[in-house]
Write a structure and sequence with these properties.
The protein is 39% helix and 25% strand. It contains nine helices and ten strands. A six-stranded mixed beta sheet has the order 6-7-8-3-9-10, with helices on both faces. The longest helix has 18 residues, at 170-187.
Length: 247
Amino acid sequence: MPDPVLKARALRKNFRGLTAVDGVSFEMFPGEILGLLGPNGAGKTTIIHMLLGLTTPTEGNITIFGRDLRRSRREIIQKVNFSSTHMSMPNSLTVRECLEVFARIYRVGPVKVIQQRIKEVCRQFEIEGIRNKILRHLSSGQKTRLNLAKALINRPQILFLDEPTASLDPDIADKTRSLLKLIREERGLSILYTSHNMREMEEISDRLIFLDKGKIIAEGKPSELVKRYQSVDLEDVFLRVAREPNR
């Protein structure tokens, strides 16, 4: 078993007396797609924000690439990226200008390298035709694809995806999942993935973590969880776990 690229130990986050994350520990390995599942308010987004260093844990520690996140965030952040349907983008810029900004932030390279990389990610997510379109005029699906293109602009080693296909039609969503799996196979990309689409999670995840009220309540491979809970599919597992009394 290779060394994990990410370790979270006893993470806890309190907000004004509310415990959003309560003693969560897990690891993620090179090339693994790890799914985070749970109802709204379970703590999924808060965990991702802590892993990105956007939110400081009340307790616990995070190690990425063998380095403490708090001490080495600047170096770590160059090798990771993030996409969320809830993320806002600079609406006054064009798609190309937006990607240029993020490419410079992530130090992708000189101008020619940046331009080539923008062409590549636009082609991958089928947004070549809107490169000169201003963001405020994009549809929700186009914004989602732009967000994903931004998330891959720096060829990250770890990708955090918070409901990345929520606004996509089934065809583009399927192409996106296939692309992510291809990049994982080619480059060993590790992905932390959240979604409320159980079929999607069952298809893409190597391993799943179920969260409820800030705690891990179940984890394992999708097929193992389906068997453990004597369910027909992952959606049935989700309903059984979420409705389990006395947790």
